[in-house]
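Records of this kind hold a single protein each, on a pair of labelled lines. Below, a sample record shows both lines together.
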Amino acid sequence: MASETITAKRLVQAVPSWLQGLLVLGLVVGALGLMGAGITQTGSILVLEVDGQPHELRTHAATVGEALRRVGLELYPEDQVTPALETPLKPGLTVKVQRARLVNLHADSEIRQLRTQADAVGQLLAEAGVQVGPADQVRLDGQVVEAETSLWGTGPAGRQAQSSGGGIGSLLGNDTSDPLVVSIRRAVSVALDDDGETESLHTMSDTVGQLLQEHGVALFLGDEVEPGLQARIVPSLTVTIRRSVPVQIEADGRIIRTRTLVQTVAGVLGQEGVALVGKDRVEPGLSTPIRPGIKIEVVRVREELVVEFEPIPFATEWVPDPQVEIDNIRLVQEGQVGLTKRRYRVVYENDQEVERFLEDSWAEQPPVTKTMAYGTKIVIRTMDTPDGPIEYWRKMRVYTTSYTAATCGKTRDNPRYGYTRLGWWLTKGIVAVDPAVIPLKTRMYVPGYGLAIAGDTGGGVKGKFVDLGFDEGKYESWHWWSDIYLLTPVPPPHQIRWILPDWPKFPDRQRR
C-alpha cells in the first residue's frame, strides 16, 4: 500500500502543473457527485399520521401528495389531509390524514352509501339533507341513538379506534372496515280525542295501548278506549277516550282516588267496598249525585266509657320530738298518695276525641299525711381544745371561707369600711353567718381558727355557711367544710333553727 501511495504521488508530481489543476478539480467534482448520490439515496424523513396513528417514513417525493401516492395510500374526496397535497416536503414535516367514515344510510325507502367526516349522527343526517321529525327513530348499527351519538365510538380516542394501529403497511389501499349502518324509521301520526280534548300524536308504537303509554296518557278504572288497547296502529287512526268521573274518598285514615261511572255517593262506596257501621256518617250524603272531583268523607263514629285515675299528693308534716337529740329526725308515719276516679262517656270521630261527658266521680282512696319528727333534745357536752376546754350544745358542719375588711366590698373612704353588721370593728374572732341558721352574737368554736362570735352577715353567706374574719395583713385562706361548735348558753327555743338547710351544696369561694 505504501508503494502504491508513493507511486501515485510521483505520478501526480510528474504531470504538468496545468494538468494537475484539472485533475484536482475533477476529484472535487467527483466527490460532490458522490455526496449528492448519497443524499438522493437517503431521502427525506417525515411523520405520517393516519387517523391519529403516527408512522415515520423516508421518501424521495417532492410534495405531500406524491409521498402519499408512493406509500400507496388511496384517498377519497371526503378524506382530510394536512398540510395540502401540493405542499413541498421538508425534513421533519408531519402529515396528518383523517379518513372519512363509510356509512350506509337507509332513509325513506332509499339506501345511500357515503363517506363523512361528521362526528355525530345528527351531523351526518344534516350533511345528507335528511330531516328527522321529533318522534322519528334513528338507529346506528341496529341500536336506537340520539342525534349527539358519535359515529366514531365512545371516549376521547374514538377516531383513533377506527385505525388498525399496525405498521405503515396497514395504511395502504382502501379502508376495509365494515360500513356503519344508519337507518331512520318514520313515526305514524295518530289523532287522540281525550274526553273532548283533541291532539295529534306521533308514535313508533304498534298498538293503541303502547301509544298511550309512550305519551304518558294515564287510564283509570272505568275509562273507555276505542278502538281497544290491543288494536294495531295504522296511519290516520283516531283514538277516542271517554273518561270516567274522578272521585276522592277519605276513609279509615287513607285517601282513595278512583274513577267511577256510577251516579251516587252510595254507589261509589259500594264500588270501593267501603262499608258503614253503627253511627258512621258520610259527607255529602249517600244520595248525593256524583260530580267530577267530588270529595267524599266517611266519618267513623264510636263511643266508649273511660275511667280515669287522678292521684292526690300527700302532705308532709314536721313535729318536734323532745326524746330525740337535736339534728336528728325520725319517720313517724309514711305518706301515701290518694286516688280519685272519674268515669266519662267519650265520643270519637275517626279515632279523635270530639266530646267527653262526665258521668260519675268518687274518691277511691284519700291521701295519708307523711309525718316526720325532728329532735329538740339538747345535750350539753364539753371538749378540750388548744384554747382550753369548751362547753357546747350543738355541733354543726358548715362550709368555711375567710375575709378581711379589704375584701368585704367597701372602699376605704366608705364610713362603714371595716365595720361589721353589729357595728364592731372587724378583727379575728368575728365571723359572718346567716342569721336564719345561726343567730347573731352566737359564740362558737372553729377548730384551726379558735373562739369566735357571730357579728357580721354577708350577701353570699346563706345557709350552713360561715365566713371567718381576719385582721388586715394577717389573712388566711379558708375554703373547705369544717365542724363548728356552738357554745353555751343555749339560746331561747324560738331562736334555734331546729331543721338545718341542705345548702350550700357547692359553694363559691368568692361568696362575699
